User: Fold these one by one.
Assistant:
Number 1:
Amino acid sequence: AAKLTGTNRFRDHSGELDATAAHHAELAAALRRGLDHGEFRLVYQPIVELPTGAITGVEALVRWQPADGPVVSPAEFIPVAEHSGLIIDLGAWILDQACADAAAWHRRHGAGAPRVNINVSARQLLDPDLPGLVADALHRHRLSPDRITIEITETAVFAGGVALGTVRELRELGVGLALDDFGTGHSSLTLLRTCPVTTLKVDKSFIDDLNGTAEQEAIATSLSTIAATLGLRAVAEGVETRDQADRLHALGYRYAQGYYFARPSPAEEIDAALAEMALAS
Ligand code: C2E
Ligand code: MG
Ligand code: MG
Ligand code: MG
């Protein structure tokens, strides 16, 4: 019961988390307790191949389920976890869990297992131990590095001087590297010259705007052309309608992710979808 008041104290009358100054430290402490009590879990959203609809990858997305309240979105707690430094321990847990699930899928589905995308935040990228941590997780789960892709954002790479070196070390391990929310940062093209990414995740805002006007289509096409020219794969993010999916396919996109294909769901549901896919093929 003490814990109950503990978490609800961060909610306002509408039930939204109130992460403003006064409650910040308490929220950080609740996150810490949540990690110690196993209140975090991962859900996975499929990344599909547009021509076939086959699941070729999944993105791991973290959820916080406090014992005494509704599920909290990462958009609300990741910034707090970053600020408090908890993201280092939380990030290590996420990495380990995602690698465990990736290894289990690989054992059960072999070549049909999806590559697993794992988000890392700016603070994690500033940690010089990150590449070692990733190498260790791969080793413990006997996972080949090409089975995972680390998702980073431009802002994270620009957050500090050591980040680019860390990114290069990650790439040298052999893991995939995706630039998340691509196109929303300020120096996308400059960054592509120096940052050894393998995938561009074209931000949802460009996909939302894909309403058939020549300009919006030109932008979406350019972004996929940039990827193709540099030998990178492009993934369209946040695809919500069949119309968007068809248009993206016509514009040359090969991979997409979004509610139209699948919502993020627990590992067991992904497993069932993979089993079904194998039966159908
Ligand atoms: P992101 O990495 O860009 O993840 C994509 C977000 O878009 C996810 O929100 C996903 O559920 C949502 N999404 C996917 N398809 C659609 C769609 O068709 N329509 C709409 N409206 N949304 C869609 P989510 O899970 O709430 O995560 C939000 C952000 O929180 C992520 O953005 C990422 O920046 C961060 N995050 C999530 N999980 C992790 C994690 O494990 N570690 C770190 N460091 N950050 C994470
Ligand atoms: Mg992401
Ligand atoms: Mg994204
Ligand atoms: Mg995003």
Number 2:
Amino acid sequence: MLTTCTTEKLDVPCTGSAHVPSELFDGLGARQAAISPKFLYDALGSKLFEAICELPEYYPTRTEAGIFERHGREIAHACGIGSTLIDLGAGNCAKAAALFPLLRPAQYVAVDISTEFVSEALARLRLRFPHIDMQALGLDFSSGLELPESVRAERRLFFYPGSSLGNFTPPEARVFLTRLRRGCGPDGALLIGIDLAKDKAILDAAYDDALGVTAAFNLNVLRHVNRLLGSDFDIRNWRHVGLYNEAAGRVEMHLEAKRFQSVRWPGGGRDFAAGERIHTENSYKYRQADAIGLLEQSGFEATRVWTDPRCPFAVIHAQA
Ligand code: AVI
């Protein structure tokens, strides 16, 4: 089920209380316990992710920003000006805002699961760019992409930076991209940033930083789950694990129980043995050819690719 809400009217999470707990119950009850990575992004989680992007170990944000800086004009040429810029997972809107002077969008639509966070960012952005028509959408676009009529249908340019595609499994990514391609309409396109496979040591450090910000980001999901589910996870009983699984081609984040514990929630609960893990995120790292293959299997035509010579990362423009 898809829940769409315009943030201006909202002061509650828009994730529809009817389906959120059942998804969480299923994940926590599974043999390999799991929590969907979307639950990492409550208001604090979004702020912690913002801090991760500043860390020296977390290269994707810096690398991608460098590509936008070095190739901005070519990127704008490929995308054209005056588009309907739809920013998926907009967060603090900083990445899209940096492109406004080049892309000069006719409309900017900031989509994020964390409504509170994105609407605050948009309020600040409206002051800087009063001539751009802007709207915020609180939307869990991982499960559907029904845009309201207020979003212009012409010249849609979906913007999906930061390698968020890596948080889907490849089959899920294909389903998601196919849905995006349909949402583009006949004259739409996609501008996407995809992280590429690299040295295990670099990846391990990026997802388990020395300051412990990624650990806090991961552990915070349990506080969010406690609020959503009424459970009694004690974050002091868990430790963060983030490492590259080379065979699977992905970084995995887990929470590992430090000791045996019983966790309760209304109507149920679960015992966790010491060392047992809850899987909280995958972050797939593609080879460039595989990333392009994925786009093409989803009906897109990759027209331009920009990379960084020192750190494998690709920004791709793909026509619908
Ligand atoms: C949002 N997403 C692309 C980030 C990533 O790199 O997979 C989330 C993240 N998880 C840990 N650090 C950052």
